[in-house]
Amino acid sequence: MRALLALLLPLVGLACGPLPALAQQHHTYVLVHGAWGGGWDWRAVDSMLTARGHRVERVTLTGQGERVHLASPDIGLSTHVTDVVNTIFWENLHDVVLVGHSYGGMVVTGVVDRIPERIRRVVYLDAFLPDSGETTLGLADPSGNGFLQRTARDGMSVPSWVTDTLAVPRDVPQSLRTFTDTLRLVNPAGRRVPGTYILTVEPTVDPDPFQRFADRAAARGWPVHRLQSDHNAQRSARVPLVALLEQVP
User: Fold this and answer.
1) N or C: which end of the chain has fewer CB within 10 A?
2) Percent residues over pLDDT 90 in the chain
3) What is the CATH number of the domain that holds 123?
4) Which residue of the set 102, 157, 175, 229 is catalytic?
5) Is residue 3 part of a domain?
6) In a domain, 219, yes or no
7) What pTM, to 2 d.p., does this model score?
8) Does the annotation count 102 as an active-site position?
9) What is the pLDDT, as a whole number, of residue 144?
10) Is residue 1 part of a domain?
11) What is the pLDDT confidence band of residue 142, given thresholds at 50, 70 and 90?
């Protein structure tokens, strides 16, 4: 039987045409949302990447999204870093493309510092790209009396659009401490993990508050992509965003 199959297989190839090319390289993505959000914000992008053969994990940070019942002013930046680190460990993920949006840039930077050996590349989507010793508050509100400070209420940050009258899923309050905690980077190996920056561009937004972080990425020799979109490209520019994520080497 094996000899017969060996004779027939070349004929099958001639009758059906050449075999299809190998599928494109598949990645393992871990997606980290921005402030006040949740893993739900990445659902559509997750579906698109999964349909194309990639593996995707959407992390919801403690106190956010469906984990809002755990919300507390005691939650800090390190809690959110640990959320992502533990997802990677418990799901036994390796060679990860780690994506952080907005505030999520603070989180993924901390993750890379803790477990650089698990990360293939870190992608910042219109996100903070901090250096050691910096805080979200210091980067977003250098004057100390800006937007984040004005949202403070009983140890939580509650922007005007965050209200429990909206349908679920929705943005929810976030611990103010996550914005005031200082990020400490101690692992030199973390600096060797390659990165990519995706800067969203709106003609009506000038100056762009995230341009300086794209400049930081460029100074490190990382590729910087400009994406025509509002700040939440995972909602408003999903198709070109997925295309950029798939370009990660």
Assistant:
1) N
2) 84
3) 3.40.50.1820
4) 102
5) no
6) yes
7) 0.89
8) yes
9) 60
10) no
11) confident
